[in-house]
Design brief:
single chain; 229 residues; alpha/beta; Rossmann fold; Arc Repressor Mutant, subunit A; four-stranded antiparallel beta sheet
């Protein structure tokens, strides 16, 4: 792991922020501490960062909004969220916003370092363009380009189709909560957005049907389960 990486840390708890900064700097990282999301976004626009660590609940601009703003200008930089809550809704919203991983408070410094190392290893393994392809069953999928490589040609997904498929794949073999998914992607879990999501689910089923091992299963009263048999 490189000791020259620049890390942007956004944490509004002053004592925790300084503790994290001191620890990571002792491990050889360059750490820039911001005390709210707005300050962090301004810093991100002023310098190049190799890794971001954001607290979710911050004043002025929260971690979700900050991650979404950064993903508009940089789709690659790794983002690790720090959260006091381990709620599945928060995780879904975070992954939709562009998070690479979560760390739930309280955590040990060793665990933080392990997460950073694991994320960096995954990122470094994707330097080759071919490694940006995710295997969904037998189907090749490029989330960054929103492309499914199907037997009858490439299919470009819409933004919402792509966001939905990313959540399904990341939560493979787990129940994807319906209301949480609606709030994460559509911003509201009202009836009309629910009907819209059902249409997108049907479209994804149709696109993925060439691999009979793939199933997007309805779980009554809960949501969906993405299964690759």
């Amino acid at each position: 792991m490189s000791n020259k990486l620049n890390i942007l840390l956004a944490e509004d708890e002053e004592n925790l922020g300084k503790l994290l900064q001191t620890y990571m700097e002792s491990k050889g990282f360059n750490v820039h501490l911001a005390q709210n999301g707005k300050e962090a976004f301004e810093r991100f626009n002023e310098a190049k960062y190799d890794f971001c660590i954001f607290d979710l609940m911050m004043p002025v601009m929260d971690g979700f909004t900050l991650a979404k703003e950064i993903r508009e200008i940089d789709r690659k930089v790794p983002i690790l969220f720090l959260t006091a809550k381990a709620l599945k809704d928060d995780k879904l919203e975070g992954f939709a916003a562009g998070a690479d991983d979560y760390l739930t408070k309280p955590f040990s410094m060793e665990e933080l370092l392990a997460r950073i190392t694991a994320i960096l290893r995954r990122v470094e393994s994707k330097t080759d363009a071919n490694d940006k392809i995710v295997k969904v069953g037998k189907i090749n999928y490029e989330p960054d380009l929103r492309i499914l490589h199907l037997s009858d040609g490439d299919k470009k997904l819409t933004t919402k189709e792509n966001d939905l498929l990313i959540l399904l794949v990341k939560n493979q073999n787990e129940i994807l909560d319906r209301q949480a998914t609606l709030r994460a992607i559509w911003g509201d879990d009202n009836y009309f957005n629910g009907r819209s999501m059902d249409v997108y689910i049907a479209k994804l089923r149709k696109l993925l049907k060439e691999d009979e091992a793939i199933e997007i299963m309805n779980v009554h009263g809960k949501g969906f389960k993405f299964i690759v048999k």
